[in-house]
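Example record used in the benchmark description.
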Amino acid sequence: MLLYNLAPGHPVAERLAAAPGMDVGNYQLRQFPDGETYIRIEGEAPNKAIVCADLSSPDQKILPVLLFAATLRDLGVEHITLVAPYLPYMRQDIRFHPGEGITSRYFARMISAHFDRLLTVDPHLHRYHSLDELYSIPARSLAAAPAIADWIRTHLDKPVIVGPDSESDQWVSHVAELAGCDRLVFSKTRLGDKDVIIDARNAEKYREYSPVMVDDIISTGRTMIEAAAELAAAGLHQPVCIGVHAVFADDAYHAIQAAPIARTVSCNTVIHATNGIDVGGLLLQALQER
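Model output (structure tokens):
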């Protein structure tokens, strides 16, 4: 397998590059003085290639990735797999207001036009049942739940898995089953981009437990902050917060640090100080299965 690592320094990309049997392709990728992208593939182009890319903050990164794939294709590469530990543009999945773009679909079309296969970890499937509803290429979503459950079993005593909202129930149920513990899911009413109301009824019976809040994305952090406040009001211990993707927009991380939260841990799909759960093995195994 030949890998082009477009995310040097990313822990998942580095794990893939260091795997036995993985060859790493050399390339040049830089910006011209006017900001345009220069790409050169060094050596003979392979028949099949893997491209690993960090697509967090996607608007800054996606064009070079697409141009890189186009260059490979132009040089004769017949099959290109995109490994994107974090898959962006899953938020806008319907037209909430007249005139809005359904950008999840447009982004999927761009990726599908340049790549032949997609591997990612726990994309934010809310109104979509699978990536097949969006992508016209084979697109596989790998679950971080087993790695999260392993971390919980190793680090916490008497945990109860808490979902801060109904959208997180899919993660909470799976993780709780794998970790062999109870689960508790709250309901959420969103008042705006950063304002939410959390209903934490039935939390009181878990006062002697170690609450663990699990969600796929920590973005503004407001949902987890409000849920932590409700847990505190119910007399529970401060929770450990676990997120698959540590997006942390604006001041979200500082806000979480100031909240009644014992610790925040994330998977290493997006580079962040909270990274503590490795999912590189999931992606490597998926690549080796083919």
